[in-house]
């Protein structure tokens, strides 16, 4: 397990929003976190990535309790791309985290080039981030995190604020992160974002109500999450003619 938590409880004031959650994430595993609004997805991911730390329970990164040092290995991409841009140019933005880490300049330049190439933005170095589309801004946010060499990357509804084109752009980059063997955890309401995850963790009122294989989730889920198209199509292919006619007749 690259990341693990035990008996996490978290309150906002008197309200319990994470209720005794324990889980482990294997290195390289692509995981989706789902749940209704307010079920605790963002709170749990912020705890697991060391952004929120006034919780009860324990979080371990590679068997060591999460601390100031090892939390650098865990990146977090927020929902709104606007809120995570700090640089005046794109290269400055990507450099920001590395500067804080004290990465030598030569290495920094290499890392900027590499990270921008991964998100398909080579040649954008001198551009003003304000001139970017939503999808590009989110890709820039990913590049900035990637340049810091995280092992685990949490993404909190990274495509929610985007139009279909931006969503596809960002999803293509997410797939690349998975190919790079990063451990990616994505919270999403969009089945499109979840089509390739191996595992789904579903939360309800701060509790895990499902943790397992994606296809089993869609067989049993009681949340308001539609099935990905390929599962729907497969089901249709398995129907006999009569079933299909009945199904279509249901659609008025
Ligand atoms: N800063 C805060 N102060 C007080 N309560 C909060 C705060 N942030 C979140 N909450 C509450 O904690 C609960 C869990 O919120 P959280 O944002 O983790 O849910 P979520 O599953 O990410 O929801 P969404 O799908 O809307 O993003 C909600 O009831 C929310 O109102
Ligand atoms: Mg959220």
UniProtKB/TrEMBL annotation:
Q: Which GO terms describe its cellular component?
A: ATP-binding cassette (ABC) transporter complex
Q: Where is it chiefly localized?
A: membrane
Any one GO molecular function term: ATP hydrolysis activity
Per UniProt, the keywords (alphabetical) are: ATP-binding, Cell membrane, Membrane, Nucleotide-binding, Translocase, Transport
Q: Where in the cell is it found?
A: Cell membrane
Q: Does the keyword ATP-binding apply?
A: yes
Q: Which InterPro entries would you find in this protein's record?
A: AAA+_ATPase (IPR003593), ABC_transporter-like_ATP-bd (IPR003439), ABC_transporter-like_CS (IPR017871), ABC_transpr_CbiO/EcfA_su (IPR015856), ECF_ABC_transporter_ATP-bd (IPR050095), P-loop_NTPase (IPR027417)
Q: Which domain of life is it from?
A: Bacteria
Entry annotated with the keyword Nucleotide-binding = yes
Which Pfam families does the entry link to?
ABC_tran
The ABC transporter domain extends over 3-230
Q: Where are the transmembrane segments?
A: none
SUPFAM superfamilies reported in the protein's UniProt record: P-loop containing nucleoside triphosphate hydrolases (SSF52540)
UniProt lists the family membership as follows: Belongs to the ABC transporter superfamily.
Task: Write the protein's name.
Answer: Energy-coupling factor transporter ATP-binding protein EcfA1
Q: Which organism is it from?
A: Tepiditoga spiralis
């Amino acid at each position: 397990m690259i990341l693990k938590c035990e008996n996490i409880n978290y309150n906002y004031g008197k309200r319990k929003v994470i209720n005794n959650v324990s889980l482990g994430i294997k290195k390289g595993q692509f995981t989706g976190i789902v749940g209704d609004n307010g079920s605790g997805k963002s709170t749990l991911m912020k705890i697991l990535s060391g952004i929120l730390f006034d919780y009860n329970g324990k979080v371990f990164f590679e068997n060591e309790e999460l601390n100031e040092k090892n939390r650098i290995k865990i990146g977090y991409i927020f929902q709104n791309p606007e809120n995570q841009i700090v640089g005046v140019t794109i290269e400055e933005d990507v450099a920001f985290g590395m500067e804080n880490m004290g990465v030598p300049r030569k290495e920094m330049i290499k890392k900027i080039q590499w990270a921008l190439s991964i998100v398909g933005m080579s040649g954008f170095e001198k551009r003003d981030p304000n001139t970017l589309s939503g999808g590009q801004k989110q890709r820039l946010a990913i590049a900035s995190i990637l340049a810091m060499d995280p092992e685990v990357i949490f993404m909190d509804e990274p495509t929610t604020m985007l139009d279909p084109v931006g969503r596809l752009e960002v999803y293509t980059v997410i797939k690349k992160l998975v190919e790079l063997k990063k451990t990616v955890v994505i919270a999403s309401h969009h089945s499109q974002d979840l089509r390739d995850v191996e595992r789904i963790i579903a939360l309800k009122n701060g509790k895990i109500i499902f943790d397992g294989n994606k296809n089993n989730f869609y067989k049993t889920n009681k949340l308001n999450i539609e099935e990905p198209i390929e599962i729907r199509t497969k089901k249709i292919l398995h129907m006999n003619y009569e079933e299909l006619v009945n199904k279509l007749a249901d659609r008025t």
